[in-house]
Amino acid sequence: MAQTKRPNETVLEIEHTYCVRILPTKLESYQKDEIQQGYVNEKRARIRSYNNIHFEKTIKRKVDRNDFSTATEQTVPLTAHQFEALWKQCPRTLVKTRYYIPLEKHMAELDLFHGPLEGIAYVEVEFKSHAEAARFKAPDWFGADITQKPWSVNYELIGYTKDEVMFLMEEAGNV
Question: Which of 50, 83, 154, 155 is close enough to 2 for a disulfide, judged by CB 3.0 to 4.6 Å?
């Protein structure tokens, strides 16, 4: 269920990131993607493989350096060959399973990380405006809103151990 964005179109993304207090039941009933994600040379150039069949490169730029919720994104499709060549150049990589969980008016994207970050779970929700984000009432299974924590950004997350992330999540008020 990889997101389909028009190639080379720059879009504004308003997104909040939350810890996960309790995993939803029946995860197997939701659509999911197995994602390989890496960062080429600079943290703004992200490549992704969805289920090893859809490949893309995204340039993501924060709109305000003090706000982690808003960024512009420009995504271009890649071939499997292009992805593999770029993957070899990625000093920072991660693997995760993303579940798409419908909420009342939004889609929750639940990421369960694998490898060194096994056991870490985040959930992200995209909004059309900051006002809509401010009105959002998170479901009970969501934990603390960590949107403005620099370590919640995947590129930064890769630099931490699982234990360090667990400590940061507890410190952020995740219960």
Answer: 50
pLDDT at residue 173, rounded to an integer: 87
Q: What pLDDT is recorded for position 41?
A: 75
Which residues, other chains included, contact 24 with Cβ-Cβ below 8 Å and sequence gap of 6+? 30, 99, 101, 110, 141
Q: How many Å separate Cα 125 from the centre of its chain? A: 9
Are 30 and 101 a contacting pair, CB within 8 Å? Answer: yes
Q: What's the DSSP call for residue 129?
A: S
CA distance 19 to 95: 18
Check pLDDT > 80 for residue 174.
no
Q: Three-class SS of residue 153?
A: coil
Write out pLDDT tens, residues 118-164: 999 999 999 999 999 999 999 999 999 999 999 999 999 998 999 99
Q: Rounded distance, CA 38 to CA 88, Å?
A: 9
Closest CA to 139 of 32, 25, 6: 25
Write the CB contacts of 172 (distance below 8 Å, at least 6 apart in sequence). 19, 144, 146, 149
